[in-house]
Amino acid sequence: MTIDWTEYRDFWTRRRGESGSDAESLGRKHTDGVKRAILVDEGSLHLRTDLVPPWPGRFVRIDGTRTYVRDTPTTAPRTAEPALYVHGLGGSSQNWTDVAGLLASRFDGRAIDLPGFGRSAPAARYTVDAFAARVLRWIEESGRGPVHLVGNSLGGAIAVKVAVLRPELIRTLTLISPALPFLDPRRSLQGRLVPLLALPRADIVAARRLARIDPGDLTRLVLEACFGDPAAVSPQRFAEAVEEAKLRYELPWYADAYVRTLRGLVGSFLRAYLPGAGSLWRTAARVQAPTLVIGGDQDRLVDVRVAPQAARHIKDSRLVILPGVGHVAQMEAPVLVARAIVGMLDELRKNAPRTSSAVAMTA
To answer: What CA–CA distance (Å, rounded) separates 360 from 363?
Structure first.
């Protein structure tokens, strides 16, 4: 179910109008030395015939601030390991409903609403570093570490930071369309928002624009930006997304959180190409945890070349590019994402060293 690398090269030839020689160079650049991810059979997953509603949540206090967390109960309490899911810019813990359910036989999962998003209270700072500090505090205070950390988009960048800051708290890392740096704004629909960030009160402008859009229309715009095939979204999931969109109209801080987070992310992209230790790419190269990188070849928000680049930077990584899939593979292709995550878990279990007791038995 992975895209053929020749097909991947040809995709970029068609999409970007590159010459044949440039496309061949691009293909070699992104595939040399990258290990392919393993996708297990669907029988390894906790499959259901129905669509569950968003998992129930609760408020917890982290450093005195209300943070919303959803719980996905495991179906294997004796063997399941703790996992934490981190959403992207403008998203919420609800983005993990399907994939968390599919992984319930392996993970005892939690999904967090980042500060200012979903139902969580706003924050003083909206930078990758500030978000990473909040995620770390939750892992510490919950006592659930080490965890399997799964992040999408902005959540992927946060996960990279967390994994480097506190490697002992991370079992594995899964990065889905991680928002790691690239400089060409033409490769992202978000690029057209960058000029807005220069305005002194860009949040007011954004809030006014948001107020003029019907929640249903806003949901359609988001799906068109994030999905490779927006028409594939089920009526139930669309209705849930509309209800989630309505929440944004009720929270006075949402526009401010969105604009300041995007501004912080763009700033981190620019710093990545300057001298110094602040580069997210240099940070990614220091990741020690076994890592799975997932990209969609129809991603309209993050340059699709970022996922292979991330896999090359991270030493113990494996990569899968999903054909026809957009920016939120965990929502658009949850079965494929879950198969790839379980594939990594099975690979690591298979390659784990023998226990000392086994050695002692042969002594």
So the answer is: 5
Sign, CA dihedral 114-116-117-119, equals positive
> Among candidates 238, 226, 253, 266, which has minimal Cα distance to 117?
253
Domains of the chain: 33-352 (3.40.50.1820)
pLDDT at 30: 54
Is 60 exceeded by the pLDDT of residue 270? yes
Determine the pLDDT at residue 278. Answer: 81
- 120 phi, psi to nearest 5 deg: -75, 150
Phi, psi at 86, each rounded to 5°: -125, 120
Name the burial class of residue 63, with classes exposed (0-12), middle (13-18) and buried (19+) by CB atoms within 10 angstroms of its CB: exposed
- Token pair of 326, please? 């957009």
**Phi, psi angle pair for 64, to nearest 5°:** 80, 5
Q: From CA 137, how far away is CA 142, in angstroms rounded?
A: 8
Peptide bond into 146 cis (omega under 30): yes
User: Does residue 5 sit in helix, strand or coil?
Assistant: helix
**Closest C-alpha to 264, from 136, 158, 150:** 158
- For 95-112, what is each residue's pLDDT tens digit? 999 999 999 999 999 999
Per residue in 19-61, pLDDT tens?
A: 333 333 334 455 557 899 999 999 889 888 889 999 999 999 9
Beta bridge partners of 112: 69, 86
Q: In terms of C-beta density within 10 A (0-12 exposed, 13-18 middle, 19 or more buried), how is residue 275 classed?
A: exposed
pTM across the whole model? 0.88
Residue 95 to residue 114: CA distance in whole angstroms: 12
Work out the percent of the chain whose per-residue pLDDT is above 90: 70
What are the structure tokens assigned to 115, written together?
Answer: 């500060």
